[in-house]
Specification:
- Helices cover 33% and strands 29% of the residues.
- By secondary structure, the protein is α+β, with helices and mostly antiparallel strands.
- Strands 1, 2, 3, 4, 5, 6, 8 and 12 form an 8-stranded mixed beta sheet that branches. Strands 9-10-7-11 form a 4-stranded antiparallel beta sheet, covered by helices on one side.
- Strand 5 and strand 6 form a beta hairpin.
- It starts with a strand and ends with a strand.
- The structure holds cytidine-5'-monophosphate (C5P).
- Cytidine-5'-monophosphate binds next to strand 2 and helix 5.
Amino acid sequence: MINVTAPAKINLFLDILGRLENGFHSLFMVMQTVDLCDEITVDKGNGGISLTCFDERLPQDERNIAYKAAAAFFKATGIEPNAVITVTKKIPFEAGLAGGSADAAAVIVGLNKLYGTELSTQAMCEIGLTVGSDVPFCIKGGTCIAQNRGEVLSEVKPLKECFIVIAKPEKGVSTAQAFAAADSTHIYHPDNLRMLDACSRGDFNAICKHASNVFEQVIEVVERIEIKDVMRSCGALLYQMSGSGPSVFGIFDSKEEAEKCVRELKKSYKDVFLTSPVNYGAKTI
Ligand code: C5P
């Protein structure tokens, strides 16, 4: 049996540049994996793909992205499907944290090890992209500029050690609906070049200064103001929504301040996490 850890991601930057011919949106993002992880196991069984997800709110069959990732792996490699998969959820879903994509990434990485197929990261990313736009980044992980659908990845200097508080309001957001909302309104573009420059230099203060997420212009999350207020009052250097929301993250230099922020937010919210950036994506343990 292979155990795989599947880190969540946050978006330090997210701009929508336009529409691609395939219907997806052309994006400019800065992505970061954090140590809030789902746990996945993959093993051989008696043929076919079986999935147990220890959260009954999620489908346990071919509708689950982890299942789709396994099917895509077997199709790409020509191996007869045979996998028993378990998924233990820690990452909240419909949260803007790529929880589903992280699971899909972990299944591909796990099956690559289980079957000794020795696929390159690039080859695994190509399989991953067939099931979701964020899966390639979830395989690669670390600190990356992600463009096009999200699959054109350029590594930049790792984010310096810091503490990232993540709070997820109760109501999830559908990514498809978020993109539809963005299509129906004018988006004011943030300063992509300054963010690119900050990332290429690994300038933490400039990254915090130029961070932005255009989904905040179109997605209404009532709790966002309150969460940001708490983060600001606790000393966060940056507070921003991740992906299409609704999760909001705050970045802190000081662990004590981050812990205080977690305590404050836990008074009102169930899903509050203290995390740190990691320089890996889905990986076997
Ligand atoms: O690829 P994925 O399944 O994660 O996409 C979820 C939703 O977000 C889909 O509706 C897709 O059309 C939209 N999307 C998009 N452009 C992207 C990524 C996702 O329009 N670059």
